[in-house]
Design brief:
DUF1127 domain-containing protein; YjiS-like; rod-shaped; mainly alpha; 78% helix; 80 residues
């Protein structure tokens, strides 16, 4: 095994720090995107279920749903 000079050790430590920072940044961004995605899904579910609940029986029949189907969908938690 080769002995490292202090300069090589510093370079190695700096590269490890860069990798650690990069990993931390990637994890933070991933967590941030997860929350953004969840909030976007909740907003989407709220909008679509709200619109679905305003359809009349003829419109529901056109898309192949019943009032019971709509009731079941509208009463689901927003995050599902």
């Amino acid at each position: 095994m080769k002995n490292c000079t202090s300069e090589e050790m510093n370079n190695l430590e700096n590269s490890q720090l860069d990798i650690n920072d990069c990993c931390k940044n990637a994890l933070a961004k991933l967590k941030e995107n997860t929350w953004k995605q969840r909030l976007a899904k909740i907003a989407h579910n709220w909008r679509t279920r709200s619109r679905l609940s305003r359809l009349d029986d003829a419109q529901l029949k056109d898309i192949g749903l019943t009032a019971a189907d709509v009731d079941q969908e509208v009463h689901k938690p927003l995050w599902k």
